[in-house]
């Protein structure tokens, strides 16, 4: 009975934290005004085998109503038509440039090196790194620049709307935001005057150019698979401020096109946590199981397997209802599928199995693959 009470109290705290996070996140506004003189912004796109995405991504960025920007694409040694498509667009728009990426040096992760090359080629006072699978509203750049110029952070990032088309994507991908939003006190971190670690999602990174180079840029995290997380840590380590905003009205992203790529993508991130600290990974897994998965198993067992109702059934029902309420609040806010709510145990179980697989790869000395590249102990990239 005591365990059930403690879990219920913990879930209430998580619910309150989630509600405060959703309420505190700033949102880019369609009527935002950027004060003159308007800073020059370099929009930087690392692209490796993105022939299905690079064209639509560049096209929506070309339609920005912001008056002073360039678009720079680095073709990261693609084996498909990524470079051809990007160069065809660049030929008709002087704001667009395409760079042929250099071979990946030893000791660098692929995306970190691609972003480093982009930063070296950029001319802007602000550097906006976006993934090739992102899509942007025409007022995106103007609205986020208004927030950045007002708040003056070292780094602005946030939560794009995650697009899911298959059932597996609809069930699994929203778990990512769920875990971040219930665990992280963003409402408190955003109010702190001093530099503190925060959420960093590398699909959209907006830096002041001088701050980017001051903290060491992507070269400082060259050996990291999850360069976005470590780059955020680098900002804090050097006394910079991170502004996290709700980007869902202006930026969308379809992270994975298949179940296999989703498995590999999440495994890459989980592997990085395991490489940093296996104890941290298992602690997070234990917390996630106790608070967000076990109540469903307890309720199932109590209703369908137990000979009679337990004395704590009502407590478990309350736990499950709170979890579903949290999932519903996130579904409504980020416009997720209802499947993400009703199949919550399935989506979270996917994360557990993927975590165990990634950890086992770490234990036996094998790495993980992403974008046809191997990362792990043998390569020195973790």
The low-confidence runs, each spanning 5 or more residues with pLDDT under 50, are none
Number of domains: 2
CATH hierarchy class name of the largest domain: Alpha Beta
User: What's the total count of β strands?
Assistant: 12
- The CATH architecture designation of the largest domain is Alpha-Beta Complex
**CATH-derived topology of the largest domain:** Spore Coat Polysaccharide Biosynthesis Protein SpsA, Chain A
Radius of gyration: 22 Å
Number of helices: 15
Strand count, sense and closure of the main sheet?
A: 7 strands, mixed
Write the H/E string, N to C.
HEHEHEHEEHEEHHHEHHEEHHHHHEE
In terms of DSSP E residues, the strand content is 5-15%
Helicity, as a percent range: 40-55%
Shape: globular
Please give a handful of descriptors for the protein shown.
single chain; 382 residues; Spore Coat Polysaccharide Biosynthesis Protein SpsA, Chain A; 12 strands
Task: Tell me what you see in this structure.
By secondary structure, the protein is of the alpha/beta class. The chain has two domains: 2-20 and 263-375, no CATH class; 28-257, Spore Coat Polysaccharide Biosynthesis Protein SpsA, Chain A, CATH 3.90.550. The chain is 51% helix and 14% strand. It contains 15 helices and twelve strands. It has helices at 2-24, 54-62, 82-90, 110-121, 140-151, 167-172, 174-183, 186-189, 209-214, 227-237, 259-276, 278-305, 313-334, 339-342, 344-363; strands at residues 41-47, 69-75, 96-100, 126-130, 134-136, 155-159, 161-162, 204-208, 242-246, 251-253, 368-370, 373-375. Helix 7 crosses helix 13, helix 11 (259-276) packs across helix 15 and helix 12 packs antiparallel against helix 15 (344-363). The radius of gyration is 22 Å and the shape is globular. The model has no long low-confidence stretch (mean pLDDT 92).
